[in-house]
């Protein structure tokens, strides 16, 4: 695990907590985004705790660069933030971060979050992702963003699953709605992410809004 935060005391506290917990190993710590990108390439951690607001290379750019340079299994990036409705967090999710965690979360929540993203699970309730994305997706200017991938590569059922995911439904709720198994929902979502070259469920939600598949408030 790699811990990235520009404030020494916060970084040291996170490292101490993780090192003391069974099953967790910190392979490095960085005080800025530039150092984080370099250490991620050197140590190849499974999970990165990424501070979002840092001078110089911020957490969004660091996330983009780390995921772009990953060769095999990309690290799961968990963004640390002070505010849940934060445009920087939105940018990090758009770049492929697996989830976010408030800095005032307790130790148990932190350890559970790291375990969840390491296993590829959704870290937070989909409704939280939806609230965040709705708050900022409408503010995106077309000139400032790359065109979204073509959704035409998806089957009608994959499109349905993506749409319901973006609307904040859990896998179980989607399964009940479509009369399919929860495992089948996961399969459709995984295929969707592969076809669209997406790294996380949160990134899929962002895409659904930015492509117009789902509209804020809809």
UniProtKB/TrEMBL annotation:
Entry's transmembrane regions? none
UniProt keywords, alphabetically:
DNA-binding, Phosphoprotein, Transcription, Transcription regulation
- SMART domains for the chain: HTH_LUXR, REC
Q: Does the keyword Transcription apply?
A: yes
Keyword Transcription set for record = yes
Q: Where is the Response regulatory domain?
A: 1-118
* Coiled-coil regions listed in the entry: none
What is the top-level taxon of the source organism? Bacteria
Spell out the protein name for this chain: Response regulator transcription factor
Q: Which organism is it from?
A: Streptomyces bangladeshensis
- Lineage, please? Bacteria, Bacillati, Actinomycetota, Actinomycetes, Kitasatosporales
